[in-house]
Amino acid sequence: METTRPAAPARANDRASTWASWLMLLLSASALTTNFGVHLTLLLVLLSLGLLVRRGFTDFHRTHARVLRYIFLGFGGFVLVTLLRMLWFGHPINVMDGPSRLLFALACIGFVGILRPNIRLFWVGMCIGTIVAAVQGGWQFVVLGEERVTGITHHAITYGDLAVAMGVMSFCALSDFRGTRLAWLPPLALLCGMLAAIFSGSRGAWLGFLLVLWPMLKYGSRMHGKTMRWVVGLVLLACAVGYLVPQTGIAGRAADAVSDVERYYSVHDASTNVGTRLELWKAAGMMIAEHPFAGVGRENFRPTLLAFEKEGRLQHSIALTYSSAHNDVLHTLATGGLLDLVFLLLMYGAPFVFFSRMLHHGPQAAAAPALAGMLLVILFVAFGLTDVMFWLMRTQAFYATMVCVLAGFCLAAQSASNASQVPHALRT
Known about the structure:
mainly alpha
Protein backbone atom coordinates (compact mmCIF):
# COMPACT_ATOMS: atom_id res chain seq x y z
CA MET A 1 0.00 0.00 0.00
CA GLU A 2 1.17 3.49 -0.78
CA THR A 3 2.68 5.23 2.23
CA THR A 4 2.80 8.80 0.98
CA ARG A 5 1.87 11.50 3.40
CA PRO A 6 -1.90 12.20 3.26
CA ALA A 7 -3.14 15.66 2.58
CA ALA A 8 -4.60 17.52 5.53
CA PRO A 9 -8.39 17.88 5.51
CA ALA A 10 -9.66 21.06 3.95
CA ARG A 11 -10.86 23.61 6.48
CA ALA A 12 -12.40 27.00 6.59
CA ASN A 13 -9.76 29.64 5.96
CA ASP A 14 -10.80 32.13 8.63
CA ARG A 15 -9.92 33.29 12.10
CA ALA A 16 -12.17 30.75 13.80
CA SER A 17 -10.38 27.85 12.17
CA THR A 18 -6.99 29.31 13.04
CA TRP A 19 -8.04 29.87 16.64
CA ALA A 20 -9.39 26.31 16.83
CA SER A 21 -6.06 24.99 15.51
CA TRP A 22 -4.10 26.73 18.25
CA LEU A 23 -6.60 25.55 20.85
CA MET A 24 -6.01 21.95 19.75
CA LEU A 25 -2.27 22.55 20.10
CA LEU A 26 -2.87 23.87 23.63
CA LEU A 27 -5.02 20.87 24.52
CA SER A 28 -2.59 18.18 23.48
CA ALA A 29 0.51 20.00 24.73
CA SER A 30 -0.92 20.74 28.18
CA ALA A 31 -3.03 17.63 28.88
CA LEU A 32 -0.26 15.91 30.87
CA THR A 33 2.01 18.85 31.64
CA THR A 34 -0.47 21.10 33.46
CA ASN A 35 -3.43 20.70 35.78
CA PHE A 36 -5.65 23.02 33.75
CA GLY A 37 -5.08 22.10 30.09
CA VAL A 38 -8.03 19.79 29.43
CA HIS A 39 -10.44 21.78 31.61
CA LEU A 40 -9.47 25.10 30.00
CA THR A 41 -9.98 23.61 26.55
CA LEU A 42 -13.44 22.32 27.47
CA LEU A 43 -14.36 25.73 28.88
CA LEU A 44 -13.27 27.52 25.69
CA VAL A 45 -15.12 25.01 23.52
CA LEU A 46 -18.31 25.54 25.54
CA LEU A 47 -17.93 29.32 25.21
CA SER A 48 -17.70 28.80 21.44
CA LEU A 49 -21.09 27.11 21.17
CA GLY A 50 -22.71 30.36 20.03
CA LEU A 51 -20.27 30.57 17.12
CA LEU A 52 -20.84 26.91 16.29
CA VAL A 53 -24.63 27.32 16.22
CA ARG A 54 -24.29 30.01 13.56
CA ARG A 55 -22.03 27.68 11.57
CA GLY A 56 -24.48 24.79 11.51
CA PHE A 57 -23.92 22.99 14.83
CA THR A 58 -27.40 21.44 14.72
CA ASP A 59 -27.13 20.45 11.06
CA PHE A 60 -23.74 18.85 11.69
CA HIS A 61 -25.04 16.61 14.44
CA ARG A 62 -28.19 15.79 12.47
CA THR A 63 -26.02 14.71 9.54
CA HIS A 64 -23.78 12.51 11.69
CA ALA A 65 -26.39 11.39 14.22
CA ARG A 66 -26.30 7.79 13.05
CA VAL A 67 -22.56 7.27 13.54
CA LEU A 68 -22.41 9.28 16.77
CA ARG A 69 -25.57 8.09 18.54
CA TYR A 70 -23.94 5.41 20.69
CA ILE A 71 -21.07 7.69 21.74
CA PHE A 72 -23.63 10.26 22.89
CA LEU A 73 -25.69 7.54 24.55
CA GLY A 74 -22.67 6.20 26.45
CA PHE A 75 -21.31 9.51 27.73
CA GLY A 76 -24.64 11.29 28.07
CA GLY A 77 -26.37 8.30 29.66
CA PHE A 78 -23.67 7.96 32.30
CA VAL A 79 -24.05 11.65 33.18
CA LEU A 80 -27.85 11.36 33.34
CA VAL A 81 -27.72 8.32 35.63
CA THR A 82 -25.23 10.16 37.87
CA LEU A 83 -27.59 13.12 38.08
CA LEU A 84 -30.57 10.91 38.93
CA ARG A 85 -28.55 9.09 41.61
CA MET A 86 -27.50 12.42 43.10
CA LEU A 87 -31.11 13.63 43.31
CA TRP A 88 -32.51 10.33 44.59
CA PHE A 89 -29.88 9.66 47.26
CA GLY A 90 -29.20 13.29 48.16
CA HIS A 91 -25.51 13.17 47.23
CA PRO A 92 -23.55 16.47 47.20
CA ILE A 93 -23.34 18.32 43.89
CA ASN A 94 -19.60 17.67 43.60
CA VAL A 95 -20.32 14.08 42.51
CA MET A 96 -21.10 15.66 39.12
CA ASP A 97 -17.62 17.17 38.72
CA GLY A 98 -16.07 14.26 36.84
CA PRO A 99 -19.13 13.05 34.88
CA SER A 100 -19.91 16.60 33.75
CA ARG A 101 -16.61 16.60 31.85
CA LEU A 102 -17.93 13.68 29.80
CA LEU A 103 -20.93 15.78 28.77
CA PHE A 104 -18.82 18.87 28.02
CA ALA A 105 -16.41 16.80 25.93
CA LEU A 106 -19.18 15.88 23.49
CA ALA A 107 -19.16 19.49 22.28
CA CYS A 108 -15.61 18.89 20.99
CA ILE A 109 -16.94 16.66 18.20
CA GLY A 110 -18.89 19.49 16.61
CA PHE A 111 -16.22 22.06 17.45
CA VAL A 112 -13.55 20.15 15.53
CA GLY A 113 -15.86 18.78 12.84
CA ILE A 114 -17.26 22.20 11.94
CA LEU A 115 -14.22 24.47 12.31
CA ARG A 116 -11.79 21.84 10.92
CA PRO A 117 -8.62 22.93 12.75
CA ASN A 118 -5.22 21.99 11.41
CA ILE A 119 -4.64 18.49 12.73
CA ARG A 120 -0.86 18.83 12.42
CA LEU A 121 -0.85 21.41 15.20
CA PHE A 122 -2.73 18.91 17.36
CA TRP A 123 -0.09 16.27 16.62
CA VAL A 124 2.75 18.69 17.32
CA GLY A 125 1.19 19.52 20.69
CA MET A 126 0.74 15.83 21.47
CA CYS A 127 4.39 15.11 20.78
CA ILE A 128 5.62 18.13 22.73
CA GLY A 129 3.34 17.33 25.66
CA THR A 130 4.62 13.75 25.84
CA ILE A 131 8.25 14.79 25.67
CA VAL A 132 7.84 17.52 28.31
CA ALA A 133 5.94 15.12 30.60
CA ALA A 134 8.83 12.65 30.33
CA VAL A 135 11.31 15.42 31.15
CA GLN A 136 9.25 16.37 34.21
CA GLY A 137 9.20 12.72 35.29
CA GLY A 138 12.91 12.35 34.63
CA TRP A 139 13.64 15.31 36.88
CA GLN A 140 11.65 13.77 39.71
CA PHE A 141 13.24 10.35 39.17
CA VAL A 142 16.88 11.35 38.69
CA VAL A 143 17.28 14.64 40.54
CA LEU A 144 14.68 14.39 43.29
CA GLY A 145 15.23 10.67 43.75
CA GLU A 146 11.55 9.72 43.78
CA GLU A 147 11.05 5.97 43.48
CA ARG A 148 7.78 6.29 41.56
CA VAL A 149 7.22 9.63 39.89
CA THR A 150 3.84 11.27 39.46
CA GLY A 151 4.55 14.22 37.15
CA ILE A 152 1.89 16.82 37.82
CA THR A 153 -0.83 14.20 38.44
CA HIS A 154 0.04 13.31 42.08
CA HIS A 155 -0.68 9.69 41.12
CA ALA A 156 2.05 7.45 39.69
CA ILE A 157 -0.32 5.07 37.90
CA THR A 158 -2.22 7.91 36.22
CA TYR A 159 1.01 9.56 35.11
CA GLY A 160 2.40 6.36 33.60
CA ASP A 161 -0.87 5.39 31.92
CA LEU A 162 -1.52 8.77 30.31
CA ALA A 163 2.11 9.13 29.21
CA VAL A 164 1.93 5.82 27.36
CA ALA A 165 -1.41 6.82 25.82
CA MET A 166 0.01 10.12 24.57
CA GLY A 167 3.16 8.48 23.26
CA VAL A 168 1.18 5.88 21.30
CA MET A 169 -1.22 8.49 19.90
CA SER A 170 1.71 10.73 18.93
CA PHE A 171 3.24 7.94 16.91
CA CYS A 172 0.05 7.65 14.84
CA ALA A 173 0.98 11.03 13.31
CA LEU A 174 4.11 9.61 11.69
CA SER A 175 2.78 9.87 8.14
CA ASP A 176 1.62 13.47 8.66
CA PHE A 177 5.23 14.50 9.31
CA ARG A 178 6.92 12.32 6.72
CA GLY A 179 9.26 14.38 4.56
CA THR A 180 9.22 17.36 6.92
CA ARG A 181 11.71 18.67 9.45
CA LEU A 182 9.50 17.32 12.24
CA ALA A 183 9.61 13.69 11.11
CA TRP A 184 11.61 12.79 14.25
CA LEU A 185 8.93 14.03 16.66
CA PRO A 186 6.48 11.06 16.68
CA PRO A 187 9.14 8.35 17.30
CA LEU A 188 10.73 10.46 20.02
CA ALA A 189 7.35 11.04 21.66
CA LEU A 190 6.65 7.30 21.67
CA LEU A 191 9.99 6.57 23.31
CA CYS A 192 9.38 9.34 25.86
CA GLY A 193 5.99 7.84 26.70
CA MET A 194 7.68 4.51 27.40
CA LEU A 195 10.38 6.24 29.45
CA ALA A 196 7.75 8.01 31.54
CA ALA A 197 6.10 4.64 32.22
CA ILE A 198 9.44 3.38 33.56
CA PHE A 199 9.72 6.40 35.85
CA SER A 200 6.17 5.83 37.14
CA GLY A 201 6.62 2.14 37.86
CA SER A 202 3.13 1.50 36.47
CA ARG A 203 2.74 -2.15 35.47
CA GLY A 204 -0.63 -1.41 33.89
CA ALA A 205 0.99 1.03 31.47
CA TRP A 206 3.30 -1.69 30.16
CA LEU A 207 0.43 -4.15 29.87
CA GLY A 208 -1.52 -1.59 27.84
CA PHE A 209 1.40 -1.02 25.50
CA LEU A 210 1.81 -4.74 24.87
CA LEU A 211 -1.89 -5.04 24.01
CA VAL A 212 -1.77 -2.29 21.37
CA LEU A 213 1.29 -3.68 19.60
CA TRP A 214 -0.75 -5.87 17.27
CA PRO A 215 -3.18 -3.15 16.05
CA MET A 216 -0.24 -0.74 15.79
CA LEU A 217 1.58 -3.14 13.50
CA LYS A 218 -1.52 -4.26 11.60
CA TYR A 219 -2.96 -0.85 10.77
CA GLY A 220 0.11 1.32 11.26
CA SER A 221 2.11 -0.66 8.72
CA ARG A 222 -0.49 0.20 6.08
CA MET A 223 -0.04 3.88 6.83
CA HIS A 224 3.64 4.07 7.62
CA GLY A 225 5.19 1.07 5.90
CA LYS A 226 8.38 -0.44 7.31
CA THR A 227 8.95 2.57 9.55
CA MET A 228 6.22 1.37 11.89
CA ARG A 229 7.78 -2.10 12.20
CA TRP A 230 11.27 -0.70 12.76
CA VAL A 231 10.19 1.75 15.47
CA VAL A 232 8.02 -0.80 17.29
CA GLY A 233 10.95 -3.21 17.18
CA LEU A 234 13.24 -0.57 18.66
CA VAL A 235 10.73 0.18 21.42
CA LEU A 236 10.51 -3.52 22.26
CA LEU A 237 14.30 -3.65 22.35
CA ALA A 238 14.31 -0.65 24.68
CA CYS A 239 11.78 -2.45 26.89
CA ALA A 240 13.99 -5.53 27.02
CA VAL A 241 17.03 -3.42 27.90
CA GLY A 242 15.01 -1.62 30.56
CA TYR A 243 14.02 -4.97 32.07
CA LEU A 244 17.64 -6.12 32.17
CA VAL A 245 18.97 -2.90 33.71
CA PRO A 246 18.33 -3.07 37.49
CA GLN A 247 18.31 0.72 37.91
CA THR A 248 15.03 1.02 36.00
CA GLY A 249 13.21 -1.11 38.57
CA ILE A 250 11.15 -2.95 35.90
CA ALA A 251 12.51 -6.41 36.68
CA GLY A 252 12.19 -5.77 40.41
CA ARG A 253 8.54 -4.76 40.15
CA ALA A 254 7.77 -7.79 37.98
CA ALA A 255 9.37 -10.07 40.56
CA ASP A 256 7.54 -8.27 43.35
CA ALA A 257 4.21 -8.87 41.59
CA VAL A 258 4.81 -12.63 41.46
CA SER A 259 5.94 -12.66 45.09
CA ASP A 260 2.92 -10.60 46.19
CA VAL A 261 0.49 -13.04 44.56
CA GLU A 262 2.21 -16.01 46.21
CA ARG A 263 2.13 -14.34 49.63
CA TYR A 264 -1.54 -13.41 49.31
CA TYR A 265 -2.67 -16.94 48.53
CA SER A 266 -0.27 -18.66 50.90
CA VAL A 267 -0.50 -16.49 54.05
CA HIS A 268 -3.25 -14.05 52.95
CA ASP A 269 -0.90 -11.06 53.10
CA ALA A 270 -2.83 -8.03 51.84
CA SER A 271 -0.18 -5.49 52.79
CA THR A 272 1.71 -5.62 49.47
CA ASN A 273 0.76 -3.70 46.31
CA VAL A 274 -0.67 -6.69 44.47
CA GLY A 275 -2.02 -8.22 47.68
CA THR A 276 -3.99 -5.03 48.32
CA ARG A 277 -5.53 -5.23 44.86
CA LEU A 278 -6.46 -8.87 45.35
CA GLU A 279 -8.13 -7.98 48.66
CA LEU A 280 -10.04 -5.15 46.96
CA TRP A 281 -11.15 -7.48 44.17
CA LYS A 282 -12.33 -9.98 46.76
CA ALA A 283 -14.34 -7.27 48.52
CA ALA A 284 -15.80 -6.08 45.20
CA GLY A 285 -16.87 -9.64 44.44
CA MET A 286 -18.69 -9.79 47.78
CA MET A 287 -20.50 -6.51 47.00
CA ILE A 288 -21.50 -7.75 43.55
CA ALA A 289 -22.86 -11.00 44.97
CA GLU A 290 -25.04 -9.10 47.44
CA HIS A 291 -26.09 -6.16 45.20
CA PRO A 292 -25.87 -7.37 41.58
CA PHE A 293 -28.34 -4.96 39.98
CA ALA A 294 -27.88 -1.56 41.65
CA GLY A 295 -24.56 -1.99 43.46
CA VAL A 296 -23.82 -0.56 46.89
CA GLY A 297 -23.76 3.03 45.59
CA ARG A 298 -20.98 4.98 43.91
CA GLU A 299 -20.09 6.78 47.13
CA ASN A 300 -20.29 3.70 49.33
CA PHE A 301 -17.34 1.53 48.31
CA ARG A 302 -15.10 2.36 51.26
CA PRO A 303 -17.93 2.42 53.85
CA THR A 304 -18.87 -1.05 52.67
CA LEU A 305 -15.25 -2.17 53.02
CA LEU A 306 -15.23 -0.97 56.62
CA ALA A 307 -18.54 -2.70 57.27
CA PHE A 308 -17.14 -5.99 55.94
CA GLU A 309 -14.12 -5.58 58.24
CA LYS A 310 -16.33 -5.03 61.28
CA GLU A 311 -18.27 -8.17 60.38
CA GLY A 312 -15.03 -10.13 60.23
CA ARG A 313 -15.38 -10.82 56.51
CA LEU A 314 -12.25 -8.83 55.58
CA GLN A 315 -8.97 -8.62 57.43
CA HIS A 316 -7.66 -5.34 58.81
CA SER A 317 -5.25 -4.16 56.09
CA ILE A 318 -4.23 -1.16 54.01
CA ALA A 319 -6.94 -2.14 51.52
CA LEU A 320 -9.50 -0.58 53.88
CA THR A 321 -8.13 2.88 53.08
CA TYR A 322 -9.02 2.66 49.38
CA SER A 323 -12.14 4.09 47.74
CA SER A 324 -12.03 2.04 44.54
CA ALA A 325 -11.59 -1.60 43.58
CA HIS A 326 -8.65 -0.92 41.23
CA ASN A 327 -10.48 -2.67 38.39
CA ASP A 328 -12.92 -0.94 36.05
CA VAL A 329 -15.48 -3.71 35.66
CA LEU A 330 -15.41 -4.92 39.27
CA HIS A 331 -15.68 -1.41 40.68
CA THR A 332 -18.50 -0.48 38.31
CA LEU A 333 -20.49 -3.60 39.15
CA ALA A 334 -19.84 -3.26 42.87
CA THR A 335 -20.87 0.38 43.13
CA GLY A 336 -23.32 0.86 40.25
CA GLY A 337 -24.51 -2.59 39.30
CA LEU A 338 -25.48 -3.75 35.84
CA LEU A 339 -26.85 -0.33 34.81
CA ASP A 340 -23.52 1.40 35.28
CA LEU A 341 -21.73 -1.50 33.58
CA VAL A 342 -23.85 -1.01 30.45
CA PHE A 343 -22.74 2.61 30.19
CA LEU A 344 -19.12 1.73 30.91
CA LEU A 345 -19.15 -0.78 28.05
CA LEU A 346 -20.79 1.82 25.79
CA MET A 347 -18.15 4.43 26.66
CA TYR A 348 -15.49 1.99 25.51
CA GLY A 349 -17.34 0.05 22.82
CA ALA A 350 -19.04 2.88 20.93
CA PRO A 351 -15.83 4.89 20.24
CA PHE A 352 -13.98 1.68 19.35
CA VAL A 353 -16.59 0.75 16.73
CA PHE A 354 -16.64 4.32 15.39
CA PHE A 355 -12.87 4.49 14.96
CA SER A 356 -12.68 0.97 13.57
CA ARG A 357 -15.25 1.75 10.88
CA MET A 358 -13.55 5.02 10.06
CA LEU A 359 -10.21 3.23 9.79
CA HIS A 360 -11.63 0.65 7.40
CA HIS A 361 -14.04 2.75 5.36
CA GLY A 362 -13.08 6.39 5.93
CA PRO A 363 -10.87 8.62 3.79
CA GLN A 364 -7.09 8.43 3.98
CA ALA A 365 -6.91 11.72 5.90
CA ALA A 366 -8.97 10.15 8.71
CA ALA A 367 -6.66 7.15 9.13
CA ALA A 368 -4.27 8.73 11.67
CA PRO A 369 -6.90 10.12 14.08
CA ALA A 370 -8.95 6.92 13.71
CA LEU A 371 -5.97 4.73 14.59
CA ALA A 372 -5.08 7.00 17.50
CA GLY A 373 -8.65 6.80 18.79
CA MET A 374 -8.79 3.02 18.49
CA LEU A 375 -5.49 2.60 20.33
CA LEU A 376 -6.62 5.04 23.04
CA VAL A 377 -9.71 2.92 23.73
CA ILE A 378 -7.69 -0.31 23.85
CA LEU A 379 -5.19 1.30 26.22
CA PHE A 380 -7.88 2.51 28.60
CA VAL A 381 -9.51 -0.92 28.66
CA ALA A 382 -6.10 -2.38 29.52
CA PHE A 383 -5.41 0.26 32.16
CA GLY A 384 -8.81 -0.56 33.65
CA LEU A 385 -7.67 -4.08 34.48
CA THR A 386 -5.64 -2.71 37.40
CA ASP A 387 -7.23 0.71 37.98
CA VAL A 388 -10.58 2.53 37.74
CA MET A 389 -10.32 4.94 34.83
CA PHE A 390 -13.66 6.73 35.36
CA TRP A 391 -13.11 7.31 39.07
CA LEU A 392 -10.50 10.09 38.85
CA MET A 393 -11.54 13.32 37.15
CA ARG A 394 -8.26 13.63 35.26
CA THR A 395 -8.60 10.28 33.50
CA GLN A 396 -12.33 10.82 32.81
CA ALA A 397 -11.71 14.21 31.24
CA PHE A 398 -8.65 13.05 29.29
CA TYR A 399 -10.38 10.03 27.76
CA ALA A 400 -13.62 11.76 26.85
CA THR A 401 -11.96 14.88 25.44
CA MET A 402 -9.42 12.98 23.34
CA VAL A 403 -12.04 10.55 22.02
CA CYS A 404 -14.34 13.40 20.99
CA VAL A 405 -11.57 15.52 19.47
CA LEU A 406 -10.28 12.57 17.43
CA ALA A 407 -13.83 11.72 16.34
CA GLY A 408 -14.23 15.34 15.24
CA PHE A 409 -11.05 15.15 13.16
CA CYS A 410 -12.32 11.95 11.52
CA LEU A 411 -15.63 13.57 10.60
CA ALA A 412 -13.87 16.71 9.37
CA ALA A 413 -11.73 14.57 7.06
CA GLN A 414 -14.80 12.71 5.85
CA SER A 415 -16.70 15.94 5.15
CA ALA A 416 -13.72 17.35 3.25
CA SER A 417 -13.47 14.14 1.23
CA ASN A 418 -17.17 14.16 0.40
CA ALA A 419 -17.02 17.82 -0.62
CA SER A 420 -14.10 17.18 -2.98
CA GLN A 421 -16.04 14.40 -4.70
CA VAL A 422 -19.19 16.46 -5.37
CA PRO A 423 -17.85 18.44 -8.36
CA HIS A 424 -16.59 15.23 -9.97
CA ALA A 425 -19.98 13.56 -9.48
CA LEU A 426 -21.74 16.53 -11.04
CA ARG A 427 -19.49 16.40 -14.11
CA THR A 428 -20.29 12.74 -14.66
